[in-house]
Amino acid sequence: MPLPVLLLLPTPPAQAIPKCHFPLNSKFVSQNPKHPNSLYFHSSRSIVLLVSDAIKPSLRTITTEASLSPPKMVKAIRVHELGGHEVLKWDDVEIGEPKDGEVRVRNKAVGVNFIDVYFRKGVYKAPSLPFTPGMEAVGVVTAVGPGLTGRKVGDLVAYAGQPMGSYAEEQILPADKVVPVPASVDPVIGAAILLKGMTAHFLVRRCFKVEPGHTVLVHAAAGGVGSLLCQWANALGATVIGLVSNKEKAAQAKEDGCHHVIIYSEEDFVVRVNEVTSGNGVDVVYDSVGKDTFEGSLACLKLRGYMVSFGQASGTPDPVPLSALAAKSLFLTRPTLFQYVVTRDELLEAAGEVFTNVASGVLKVRLNHTYPLSEAAKAHADLESRKTSGSIVLIP
Predict the structure, then answer these.
(1) Which residues form the Enoyl reductase (ER) domain (predicted)?
(2) 203, 308 Cβ separation under 8 angstroms
């Protein structure tokens, strides 16, 4: 549909004029000798300017009518209001060109993580409404910003973390936030593991450094992060105790390296951990459940044990008085991945270790669920109702 545009152009000599007003003798405007009543406006889009009668001695009114090429639109999941999985809507969004230091990426696979649920519900605050959720994807670079080096069109790259917005067919990303994906790693596997893998990396390698002889307790041991935690801690020489909700997940946790598996719906996990450790407790608890398990997790720790609370699937834990930690001189931390990959070097190191361990077989990705990107709401519903295990990936 032709779009009418009104421009006021001063006659020569040119004067200082506001933005979007062009002198007739500027490089943007020329006259067509075959059609004296027409002018041409030179831009990235071809526009013919039709001259009307002068309305002032110093100005001419020029009306343009042109078929402007429409902006590029892509499909994306959008959140217009906070709430349940039903607030995830399949919308059209405009995507522009990458600016300095940016790349545009066409996503091939998008990872689903519980942090996406937190933002959708408002547990974590999104920058604005509406927003596109998602913090993990693998895709192909389709455009690079001016002067950018080190990344080129056609590169297979991954990202995990900020900025949010991976639930989209294409997105613009800071070039320093994407990492190269080795040829040995399938894009879908990369999207299934990068954020979860880097989370497991900082938990077992930096937050509390797991070593041979340690005993660790992992909540949601059959979940996306939990599965990787069990595998990695086992490979580092620790004794791994996993908590799961049913027998099927117990079998998976065993396969993932758990030496002991506790089905918390059938027995008191605090009592069982006490039995398994002969009353000594564990060196570290990795708790992603939150409110429902927090106090029990503290009770499972040995003297000077580490309570690592890195999620709150059941809700925010109640406040803890310092006296609760003093009883056994416990350490308590509530870390997030993004504080451990602040620099480019930290990001590349973490991603590199994850991909290396995938290639070597130390980490096996349990990709048990894939959904079309348009069905993200169903993926969230299944994740929250604990119908899923392992990783979930959306396919654009």
Answers:
(1) 83-394
(2) yes
Which of the listed residues 49, 66, 83 is the one where a domain comes to its end? 66
Residue 388: the pLDDT is 84
pLDDT tens sequence across 375-395: 999 999 999 998 887 789 999
| 70 phi and psi angles, rounded to 5 deg | -70, 155
Q: Is residue 369 part of a domain?
A: no
Do 99 and 223 lie in one domain? The reply is no
pLDDT class of 36 with cuts at 50, 70, 90: low
pTM: 0.75
pLDDT digits (tens, 9 = 90+) for 95-105: 999 999 999 99
Q: Is 195 exposed, middle or buried (0-12, 13-18, 19+ CB in 10 A)?
A: buried
- What are the start-end ranges of the E strands in 350-390? 367-372
Instruction: Give the count of domains, the chain.
Output: 3
In angstroms, what CA-CA distances link 264 with 210, 219, 268, 315, 357?
24, 10, 6, 18, 30
